[in-house]
């Protein structure tokens, strides 16, 4: 069944800029098969590498496509990089290799491409025509590679992603490490209930649940029905249905029942200031959901809301970690916490990402006296 | 702009970073080059495959893990079992009833085989393997049916195999290990103990194989003589056939002895680094890398690119591949060193002749986890690729390269070819681990005076081979003088001639009269 874009965006109030770009994506001949989700009517797409290998092509045709695609990638040079810090040719060539690996069932045949056995047929997960289409989208429309193959390799996970949800960033993985540190020092947090608000693909919820083990619980919320469907798909794929519960709704709203009971709270909320959205790298600005990026005038709307909620929803000793836009937001957020929330929250810390940019704000709910 | 960023401290300043990092990156590169190309005397990178013979976990005939209760059985109770083993005609000895009673006893017997056990065997009329060689019988064609030819050919093989195994050192080492195994307190340190017993098992296995070969040869000679005395034609032709078979199989056994080193069986990393000289030498480095990819694939090994740093215009500055398969390291270790190319450069508009260099390093991937050097997490600096700019939600990239620096040694490893940072980090750690392991092996080899011979002249720094495409065409190994007049076939991966001639040259020059 084809995923209808209109049904995805129907429920939310999307700014015009995104709507237009979202709909400017030409109707794709490439159609993922679908998996029904119990929560909503929206279907999660199956990543290319998990699709049944029902198609086939001759080595000759595959090579022809590959040569064409490689040429196209090479012709880009540094153009994207210079215009908006996008990918250069060598990165695109690497992506091409991965696309090929995801599309072809038997990788041992790949070295044979162009050597001999031109008529030999290769079993594929997509038709060669679809591959032409996909690669055109990658280069000409700057459609993110992760949407092309329908997955993102994040930490040690392979997560299904699709249009409508944010592709998890490598930086965000550090929150899982932070949680791991905290949990290793306090056993009580390990067995409690955690929440990942605005879960998107479910990346943080899945990463954290694997640290907590079978005794912990994670509630993952998202107001976007696509995210709910995709997160559910990913949770199911990693066999974590018993541990992670996905709820549809805005931030804390679907989690009212755990007010004052949470052991931990994590989130990668939209934090980019509205004025910066138009200058984003094409892969991000044109294709990823604005609702997951735009954090309001100064980018802090959601972050402030999360801090307010942390003071109410965490239990004494509970831990929180939020991702921010950088040093400025970290400082502003810690100021806010110290000035307005210090009666209930404490031990605020700013933690840098692997690039040295101050990226995360962490803290605890005060212990009851 | 993009760059590698180091995570230094939590308070690092963002604005000063790019320049600092760029500096770090370039100085890292140059020190890398210095280490691996420019510093032939650098002891760290001396590989000493002679050490390969000492730690034995690759025994194909005896259990790696001799149960402790067998190890501790007193020496005297086995001496009586061992002595008959060493005589040529004693296999029927009743003492071996022990063997059937206790399954693994045989394995632990082996540890008492020291040099005394390898006393010379002979036929019933006193002919020894050395005796056969001393007769200088002419070796006729296989089809001649002349037992003396067969015997001499096999005896020569045995001699060669012994030389390749460094027979005398092997005996000394075996004695030493046997003494160690006899110590009461050996198992107080189980790690050391299992190392000793494994090595002992491996060496004893090698020794047993050679002794069995000698014995088979002498027995066949005995049989032929006996058959002739008794005019038993069936027996004679049967024994002759057996001897001929030995002769035919001996080549393979000689070859196996070339790769009898401890790590030889391992998979390995092959790393190619371009020398000075810009695009021409980067192109050469890429050609060398392609040569190894083809060679490895031709041998049926699995090749994975771990890391590749392309040149600006053509070729590569550096690249690392992982070669998976049996004996990958055993063969590839012969390629370590600097490779020189002479040709008219396609990158020179004036069509001048250029000489360029590429350095090749090979590190074994130890299969045995207990042999690994311990790495302290705190000794590592992990640098990840990031695109410039604010990062986070602003950037979408599939670039996830990771560079790991081992601070105490300055050794670095990079991986960029996996799809997540997690995997890249794991791959880079594997490269780092194998480099540190190799460093440690080299260090231990130097500590042990016995290890200093043999292949110690393998360094990154020394030139091992010249590839000349103009004004004449030839590839010549400067170590062995082995040469080939068809450079194309060599560059397409036909390297076995070079590798085997080098391996035999190294091992065969040693241990005269072993």
TrEMBL record, chain A:
Residues annotated as signal peptide = none
Q: Which UniProt keywords apply?
A: Methyltransferase, S-adenosyl-L-methionine, Transferase
Matches recorded under InterPro entries: DNA_methylase_N6_adenine_CS, HemK-like, RF_glutamine_MTase_cyano, SAM-dependent_MTases_sf
In terms of superkingdom, the source organism counts as Eukaryota
State the Gene Ontology terms under molecular function.
nucleic acid binding; protein methyltransferase activity
This one is known as: Uncharacterized protein
Q: Which organism is it from?
A: Acacia crassicarpa
Q: Which GO terms describe its biological process?
A: methylation
Matching NCBIfam families: hemK_fam
Where does the record place a coiled coil?
A: none
UniProtKB/TrEMBL annotation, chain B:
Coiled coil, from the record: none
Q: What are the protein's UniProt keywords? A: Protein biosynthesis
Q: Name one GO cellular component term.
A: cytoplasm
Q: State the Pfam families in the record.
A: PCRF, RF-1
Domain Peptide chain release factor, chain residue ranges per copy: 225-335
InterPro entries in the cross-refs? PCRF, Pep_chain_release_fac_I, Pep_chain_release_fac_I_sf, PrfB
GO terms for MF: translation release factor activity, codon specific
Q: Which residues cross the membrane?
A: none
Indicate the family of this protein: Belongs to the prokaryotic/mitochondrial release factor family.
Per its UniProt record, what PANTHER family does this chain match?
CLASS I PEPTIDE CHAIN RELEASE FACTOR (PTHR43116:SF3), PEPTIDE CHAIN RELEASE FACTOR 2 (PTHR43116)
**What is the protein name given in its UniProt record?**
Peptide chain release factor domain-containing protein
The source organism is: Acacia crassicarpa
């Amino acid at each position: 069944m084809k995923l209808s874009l209109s049904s995805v965006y129907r429920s939310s109030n999307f700014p015009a800029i995104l709507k237009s770009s979202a709909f400017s994506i030409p109707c794709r001949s490439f159609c993922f098969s679908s998996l029904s989700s119990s929560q909503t009517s929206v279907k999660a797409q199956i990543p290319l590498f998990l699709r049944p290998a029902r198609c086939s092509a001759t080595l000759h045709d595959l090579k022809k496509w590959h040569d064409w695609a490689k040429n196209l990638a090479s012709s880009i040079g540094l153009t994207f990089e210079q215009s908006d810090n996008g990918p250069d040719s060598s990165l695109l060539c690497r992506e091409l290799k991965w696309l090929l690996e995801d599309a072809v069932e038997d990788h041992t045949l790949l070295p044979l491409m162009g050597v001999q056995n031109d008529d030999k047929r290769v079993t594929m997960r997509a038709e060669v025509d679809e591959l032409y289409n996909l690669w055109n989208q990658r280069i000409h429309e700057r459609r993110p590679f992760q949407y092309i193959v329908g997955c993102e390799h994040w930490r040690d996970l392979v997560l299904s992603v699709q249009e409508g949800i944010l592709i998890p960033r490598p930086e965000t993985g550090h929150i899982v490490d932070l949680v791991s540190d905290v949990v290793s020092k306090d056993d009580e947090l390990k067995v409690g209930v955690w929440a990942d608000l605005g879960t998107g693909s479910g990346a943080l919820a899945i990463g954290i649940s694997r640290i907590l083990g079978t005794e912990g619980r994670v509630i993952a919320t998202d107001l976007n029905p696509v995210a709910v469907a995709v997160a559910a798909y990913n949770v199911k794929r990693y066999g974590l249905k018993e541990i992670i519960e996905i709820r549809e709704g805005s931030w804390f709203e679907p989690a009212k029942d755990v007010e004052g009971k949470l052991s931990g709270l994590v989130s990668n909320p939209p934090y980019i200031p509205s004025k910066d959205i138009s200058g984003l790298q094409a892969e991000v600005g044109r294709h990823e959901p604005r609702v997951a990026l735009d954090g309001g005038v100064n980018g802090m709307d959601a972050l402030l809301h999360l801090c307010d909620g942390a003071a109410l929803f965490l239990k004494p000793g509970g831990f929180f970690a939020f991702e921010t836009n950088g040093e400025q937001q970290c400082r502003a957020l810690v100021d806010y916490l110290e000035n307005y929330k210090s009666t209930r929250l404490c031990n605020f810390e700013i933690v840098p990402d692997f690039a040295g940019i101050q990226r995360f704000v962490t803290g605890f709910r005060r212990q009851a006296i | 702009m993009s760059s590698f960023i180091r995570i230094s401290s939590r308070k690092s300043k963002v604005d000063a970073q790019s320049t600092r990092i760029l500096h770090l990156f370039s100085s890292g590169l140059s020190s890398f080059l210095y280490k691996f190309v420019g510093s032939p005397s650098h002891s760290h990178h001396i590989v000493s495959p002679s050490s390969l013979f000492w730690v034995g976990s690759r025994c194909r005939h005896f259990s790696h893990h001799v149960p402790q209760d067998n190890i501790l059985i007193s020496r005297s109770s086995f001496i009586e079992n061992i002595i008959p083993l060493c005589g040529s005609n004693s296999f029927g000895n009743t003492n071996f009833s022990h063997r059937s009673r206790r399954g693994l006893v045989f394995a632990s017997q082996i540890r008492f085989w020291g040099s005394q056990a390898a006393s010379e065997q002979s036929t019933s009329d006193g002919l020894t393997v050395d005796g056969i060689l001393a007769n200088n019988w002419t070796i006729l064609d296989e089809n001649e049916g002349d037992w003396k030819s067969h015997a001499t050919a096999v005896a020569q093989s045995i001699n060669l195999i012994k030389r390749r195994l460094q027979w005398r050192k092997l005996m000394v080492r075996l004695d030493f290990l046997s003494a160690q195994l006899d110590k009461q307190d050996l198992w107080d340190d189980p790690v050391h103990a299992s190392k000793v017993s494994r090595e002992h098992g491996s060496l004893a296995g090698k020794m047993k194989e050679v002794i069995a070969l000698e014995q088979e040869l002498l027995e066949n000679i005995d049989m032929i003589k006996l058959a002739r005395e008794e005019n038993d034609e069936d027996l004679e032709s049967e024994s002759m056939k057996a001897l001929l078979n030995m002769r035919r199989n001996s080549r393979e056994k000689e070859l196996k002895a070339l790769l009898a080193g401890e790590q030889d069986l391992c998979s390995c990393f092959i790393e190619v680094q371009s020398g000075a000289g810009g695009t021409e030498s980067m192109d050469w480095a890429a050609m060398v890398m392609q040569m190894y990819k083809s060679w490895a694939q031709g041998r049926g090994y699995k090749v994975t690119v771990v890391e590749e740093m392309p040149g600006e215009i053509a070729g590569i500055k550096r690249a690392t591949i992982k070669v998976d398969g049996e004996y990958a390291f055993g063969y590839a270790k012969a390629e370590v060193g600097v490779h020189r190319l002479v040709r008219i450069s396609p990158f020179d508009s004036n069509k001048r002749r250029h000489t360029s260099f590429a350095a090749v390093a090979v590190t074994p991937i130890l299969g045995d986890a207990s042999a690994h050097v311990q790495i302290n997490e705190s000794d590592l600096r992990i640098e990840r690729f990031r695109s410039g700019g604010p990062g986070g939600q602003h950037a979408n990239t599939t670039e996830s390269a990771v560079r790991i620096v081992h601070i105490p040694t300055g050794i670095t490893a990079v991986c960029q070819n996996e799809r997540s940072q997690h995997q890249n980090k794991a791959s880079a750690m594997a490269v780092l681990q194998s480099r540190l392991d190799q460093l440690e092996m080299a260090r231990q080899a130097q500590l042990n005076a016995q290890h200093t011979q043999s292949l110690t002249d393998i360094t990154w720094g020394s030139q091992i081979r010249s590839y000349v495409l103009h004004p004449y065409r030839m590839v010549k190994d400067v170590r062995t003088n082995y040469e080939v007049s068809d450079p194309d076939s060599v560059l397409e991966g036909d390297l076995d001639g070079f590798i085997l001639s080098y391996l035999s040259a190294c091992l065969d020059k040693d241990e005269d009269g072993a």
